[in-house]
Every structure is written in structure tokens, then in C-alpha cells.
Amino acid sequence: MPCCEIIAVGTELLLGQLTDTNTPYIAGALASRGMDVYATHALGDNRARLSEAIRAALGRSDGVITCGGLGPTIDDVTKEAICDALGLECELNDAVMQSIERIFAGSGRQMRDNNRKQADLPQGSVLLSNAHGTAPGFVAFARDGKFVAALPGVPHEMRPMLDEQLLAWLRSRFSLTSFITTRVLHTIGIAESEIDHRIGDLFASQANPKIAVLAHDFRCDVKLMAKARDAHEAAALIGPLEQDIVARLEGYVFGTDDETLESVLVGRFAEVRRTIALAESCTGGRIAARLTSVPGASAAFLGGVVAYDNAVKAETLGVPAQLLADFGAVSCEVVTAMAQGVRKRLGSDVALATTGVAGPQGGTAEKPVGLVWLALASDAGVQTQRLQLKGSRELIQSRASVTALGLLWKTFYAM
Amino acid sequence: MPCCEIIAVGTELLLGQLTDTNTPYIAGALASRGMDVYATHALGDNRARLSEAIRAALGRSDGVITCGGLGPTIDDVTKEAICDALGLECELNDAVMQSIERIFAGSGRQMRDNNRKQADLPQGSVLLSNAHGTAPGFVAFARDGKFVAALPGVPHEMRPMLDEQLLAWLRSRFSLTSFITTRVLHTIGIAESEIDHRIGDLFASQANPKIAVLAHDFRCDVKLMAKARDAHEAAALIGPLEQDIVARLEGYVFGTDDETLESVLVGRFAEVRRTIALAESCTGGRIAARLTSVPGASAAFLGGVVAYDNAVKAETLGVPAQLLADFGAVSCEVVTAMAQGVRKRLGSDVALATTGVAGPQGGTAEKPVGLVWLALASDAGVQTQRLQLKGSRELIQSRASVTALGLLWKTFYAM
Questions:
Q1: Packed helices A261-271 and A393-412: angle between N→C axes, nearest 10 degrees
Q2: Which of A212, A377, B129, B189 could be bridged to A223 by S-S, CB 3.0 to 4.6 A?
Q3: What is d(CA B366, CA A333) in angstroms, rounded to the nearest whole number?
């Protein structure tokens, strides 16, 4: 099995100022393709030390993947360190220069010498183009054929470059043939221990696919990992087991793999041509942000009102002032009126409303921090739900949003 | 300055199944105490490879801190690898044995041979006792006096052992008297290369504090790191440099350290008792979510309308149907009417509006994906801004949100 090492570059990593999420991402991608990782390292922006680390890694492994230190500033030295380690010079890459010039022409910003420096690549290297930034990646080569691949450190630039370019290059270079196929079943509204109870016997009896249960905040995933030579073999391994698990977890599995609660909801509502509106107080726009993260959300989502101030609840949503005075903004009565009000104003089929005490201040004995009311209004009437959530302000806001979307899914997934 | 290396141990780290939070924790603690970290590494549970990595690190640095692989199971080999690297044998430590026996007596579980193995420590090592588990840590020594400290991998066992025992040992062993104080200046609206151009000369001329520029998405941080014996000396080192940099970046530094664009805005508006309302189309609630992430946001933020559907723009925000028909929803005219409409409806001092093509579908030659219009309405009238953003739907939505908050800050920070 071919093996490589990963070197993350950046002095901030050695100061503990940043948790490195690039290395596990790259390691996971390599593992799933059948490429062994001998070790991973982090080094500072120090040309001599970095070059020495690359040389040492090439003594043990078939190649090195660096991540970070490709930017235009003087402390970015990864490219120079790779050249030092491999005994190569840099040369101007015309394609990269043109692409950087295009980016600057498009943005109206002035191009400087340090931007031009980014168009230099080690002699004889393979370009990994950067669709999301100015720093190109590349694969450079030692005289004995070992490789050093350089990826940028910004995750949204690094990930597509790895997924779309470097993995294909590695697959072809090392003739990688077996890989791990993963199938993830997303559940909502069921505890990890209950999942364990319902499917625990399968854990022991299954070697391939392996099964794992991963608890997220207020959601659990069941992960099936099959080792196979091709997609057909992987599907044959995963299919029957997936069917069995979905049947045992009926009414809780809302989607698979890249699907999210919001993508499933938008898809389902668009399919049956029904529309959603929102009235958010304590969730402050988070539910709207989730729904509008889905491409084509406009087919199902009309819009919403972030009714933070009580005057907005009264005037824009038509919540009677008397209700606000009698029961307070965080109450079953007000959340009901918010859902009905936004449904009427926006003319949606369904409306979801939230109100609560997100904290850290503002709690009382009667209405403590973490108290949240949800309401769901439709032709069938209004249903409400009272939550008592734990955690920081951020967690309470996020947990209220997930639970509200879960209520919407639970109520309408079978429509 | 004494320096060491950190080695995290665990095959799951090389498979990308776990994000290593121990290494940044240890690195941050060492950095702030004035101990340099040369490099960090992760290796699998492999005795020969681990021992080789320890030997190599001792060739470069004054010591090594390992983390993980001290448990009782057969795949825990860190102690053996350390003994191999240092040429030491293990010997029974009576204090550890008694403590393990106490833990088992207390729990009623049966003690096994592999638990007894945990009471063996390398000859001549200093014990780091484990108040939260059975695996003790230790500091072992090479013949030349260099050290290898072993910490457990479970974070709630590792952290107190580091904080309460190992740091004190290091401080005394290396006579550490200085620590590092960090000051972060947050900027918006200025490119990394432009910051480099304006303050680049300070990078070279400054050794203490060190300066680093960190680019985030559409924002940059300038970080000052001062090495000093106490807080007073740190402040004296950072103060003048910070003033100089803030002056050179006038109009771009919006906050420091833990402050965010939204916390600064909420604070400033609350202070002068002015209010904000939002009309969000393409940003879909993201700006509201940011503002409401700040505790006490209600002092400045009234609420907003997520006007996703055109009917919501027309009916709830009062955008004239004729404008929507003539210019389309993504236009200077409509974004202006949205800002004016929400300002009037919610009665706010200031209103911010967004409309755009977030993609990936829905772009045209005239209005491509990434085209976003911003408007800011106040007593002074309406100012608009046209953006052409790049990236995925998620990035366009997030970049539009940051830029909109930046516009709000730019316009009102001096009020």
C-alpha cells in the first residue's frame, strides 16, 4: 500500500491558535481511497525547518502533501521550502499568471509584485488550479519520482482542489483500486441509546460494511462503511443492510448522505407545491438561513419575519397587544399568534414560529433561559411545542432551529 | 529559547476520524509560557515508527511531549516506544500500583494483567499522576538530559495533568520566566496584500512583538504577539505598535480580540440609542442571525423581513410592483425600495437591505450568479453598493452578509 505524509504549515498551528481541520480532511480522503498515511506534521512558516521536514518525510514515504503557506505575503514560504527540498528552481507559469491577472481585473484591485510571485511554480510540476482563490496548488517531483503536492490552507480552496484534482492524480499515479464507500442515514427525534437498542445486534454481526452511530447536536447519524473494488460491489454490500436499518428506525430517518433537514423539507414542499413562511424571534433568522441555504429554496420558501422587538410582533405579524401584555412574548399564546399572523400576511400553506429566552441574560424563575415555544400553523390548525433547552446562547438558538425544522419534517414528511 | 515537539498518538488520527484538539491545547499552553514548539506530529499506534519519530525529534529539540497511547490495551504502545527511543527498561512504580488498586477496589471491577502493566514506568522517570483515570503520565530522560513527557489522550485527563503538573515541571526545569501576550486587530474592507503594503516594513523591523496577518473570508486579522515577563511589560510592548498599525489602517480596524463585526455594531448602536432593521433577500436571514448572536442584541436590533418571494417584497415591504416588473428583483431600484420599506414599516433609524443571485442556478448574462445589491437607508438618504461575488451559494450568501455588515460599520462607526 503506497503511503504518504501530510505537513500542515503555519506558525499559528504551533502557537495553538488554530485547530487544524485540514489534516483530518485530507487524511480521511486518502484513507477512503486506499492510500496509507504514515504520519502527519505541523510546522511553522520557516523555510529551513520545513524543507528539512519534507526531506525527512520523503525518506520514509512515497510522497508528501503540504497544506498552507502558499499566499502572497513574505511569511508564505512553502513553495520555496519544497524547491529547496527537491533541488528545484521556480519558473513562471503563464496559465497561472493569466488567471491571477483575470481575478485582479475583475475585482478592480491593484495587482502587486507579491501577487505575481504566486504565478511561479517549481520546474516540471503539475498545476492544481485554484477555482476559489489566487494561490495555485501543484505537484512537484523529486529525482527518484517521489512527489510533493502543495495545497492552499484556506479550507474552501483546499477541499475542491483535493477532491477534484489531487485525488484523481493520486489514483492514477498509484493505481489505487479498492476504496471505502460510505452511506450515512440521518435521523432526528431519536436518542443515540435508542438507536443502539434497535440496531445494536448488527454492530457485532457485521464486519463489512462496518456500522457506527455518530451523535450530533440534537441529531444522530448511522454510518455504513463498505470496503469494495467498485461502486457496484459497494452498493450490493450496503443495500440490504440499509433497508434493514431504515425499517428498524421508521419515522426517524429523514435523509441520507449530503441531504440535510432543510434540503429534504424544501424538496418535499416544492414537490407537492406547498409553501412555507417563518416568524422567528429567539432563532433570529437561523431557520430562514437554513432553508435559503438550499439551491432553489424559492420554490417552497416565501420568506419570513424576524420579529425580535415586540412592536414588530404586534405591527408586522398582527399579534394582539393584549396577548403580549397578558402572557409575555415567550408564551404559547404569542407563538400561536405569530405563526397564524405570518401565515396570513405571507399567504403560505404552512407557517413556523419561534419565541424564547436565548440568554445569557433575561431569564426569570417562571421563564428561565432556554425556554422556547414553537408553533406550526396550517389548514389543520396550530400545533405548539414547549422546549426547555440547555447550553450557551448559540446552542439554544441552534437547538431551537433544528427542533423546529424537525417538527416541520415530522408533521409533513408523509404528506 | 528552549524548544520541544508534540507527538499525538493514535491510528484514528491518521484515518481522519478524529480532529486532534489536544495538540493545539498543549501548543497554546507552551507558547504562552515561553516554550517554543518546533513542530507537531501525529503517528499511529506503531511502536517502531513512534520510537523513530521520538528519536528524530530529540535530535532537533530539547524535549518531546507525547499524547495518547497510554491505555491498558494491546494497541497502546507509547510507553514501550519511549523506552525503545531512550534505551530504558520499565520498572514497577509502587505508588502507581497502589493508586490503580484503589481505583479498581472502588469501582468493583476486576483488575486484569493489562491494568497492572500501567504501573510500569521507564526507569528514573518523574511520575505525573492521573486524578481522572488509570493511565499515569511521566517524564522520562535521555542520557544527555533531554526529556520525553507522556500525557494520556483523553482530553479531560490530559488537560489537568498538563496544567497542574507538567507545566510546573517545565517552568522549573527550563527556568521559564516570560510568557506571550496576544493582541488581534480585526479589519474589514482591505485586502491582505494592501495590509502587507502598508505595514510590511514593521514585519522586518519587529522581533518582539511579532506581527502576523491572517486572511479570513473577506476579513483580515493583524496579530501582535509580545513576549514579556508580565502583563505590564506586554502592554508596554504592544501599545505603541498597535497605535502605529491602527493609524496606518485607519478606517479599516473595526475591533480587537474577541470582538466581532456584529458585536461592535450592536454595541455602538445601543450606545447611541439608534436602531437597525433588515430586509434580506439573497442573504436569507444570515445578517439577522449574526446580529442576534450578540447577547443583548435587542437593544439595537428591531427585526427584519426575509423577503425571499417577490410578493413579500411587494406586500410586506411595499416595493412598488412596477419597480419589480421594470428592473427585476435584483436591481439598485428594488434594493433601495426594500431598505426604505423596512425602515418605514419597522420604524428603525437605519435599515440594511440585500438582494442578489446566490446561485448556483438563476444567473443570466445581464445578472450573473454572484451579483448582489446592498442598500443602506437612514435620515441621510439611501446609499447602495453593487457587488460581484465569487464562490458557492454558501460563500456568496456569507460574503454578501459580511460586506453588508461592513458597509453598516463603515458608514456609522464614527457616529
A1: 30
A2: A212
A3: 48
- How far is A137 from A159, CA to CA, in rounded Å? 12
Chains A & B: contacts with CB separation below 8 Å: 255
Is residue A4 a contact partner of residue A60, using CB atoms and an 8 Å limit?
A: no
Give Cα B414 to chain centroid, integer Å.
Answer: 29
The reported pTM is 0.79
Q: Do A16 and B28 touch (CB under 8 A)?
A: yes
Q: If 0-12 CB within 10 Å is exposed, 13-18 middle and 19+ buried, where does residue A104 land?
A: middle
Nearest chain A Cα distance for residue B109, angstroms: 23
Crossing angle of helices A78-86 and A47-60, rounded to 10°: 50
User: E-strand spans in A117-248?
Assistant: 120-122, 126-128, 137-141, 147-151, 179-188, 210-216, 219-228
Nearest-by-Cβ selection for A301 from B27, B31, B308: B308
pLDDT, tens digit, for every residue of B199-212? Answer: 999 987 888 998 98
DSSP classification of residue B136: -
Torsion angles phi and psi, residue B291, rounded to 5: -65, -40
A276-280 and A301-307 as β-strands: parallel, antiparallel, unpaired? parallel
B395 dihedral zone (left: phi>0; alpha: psi -120 to 50; beta)? alpha
Of B295, B301, B302, the CB nearest to A361: B295
Of residues A41 and A201, the one with the higher pLDDT is A41
The separation between the first and the last C-alpha atoms of chain B, rounded to the nearest angstrom, is 47
| Cell numbers found for residue A110 | 491593484
Which cell goes with B342? 423596512
- Cβ distance A42 to B28 less than 8 Å, yes or no, reads no
CA-CA-CA-CA dihedral for B264, B267, B272, B277, to nearest 10: 80
> Nearest-CA distance from A93 to chain B in Å?
21
CB A57 within 8 A of CB A37: no
Please report the ipTM that was assigned to this predicted complex.
0.79
**Cα–Cα distance between A373 and A384 in angstroms, integer?**
7
Tell me if B396 sits within 8 A of B370, measured CB to CB.
Answer: yes
**What's the CA gap between A162 and A33, in Å, rounded?**
12
pLDDT tens readout for residues B218-261: 889 999 989 888 889 999 999 999 999 999 999 999 999 999 99
Helix (H) or strand (E) holding B29: helix B22-32
Residues of B in contact with A13 (CB under 8 A): 24, 27, 40
What is the gyration radius of the CA atoms in chain A, in angstroms? 27
Four-residue CA torsion sign, A38, B78, B148, B135? positive
Closest CA to B239 of B256, B254, B261: B256
Q: What end-to-end distance do the CA atoms of chain A give, in Å?
A: 50
CB spacing of A12 vs B225 below 8 angstroms: no
Find the length of chain B. Answer: 415
Please give the DSSP secondary-structure letter assigned to residue B258: T
Q: How many angstroms separate the CA atoms of B171 and B298, rounded?
A: 47
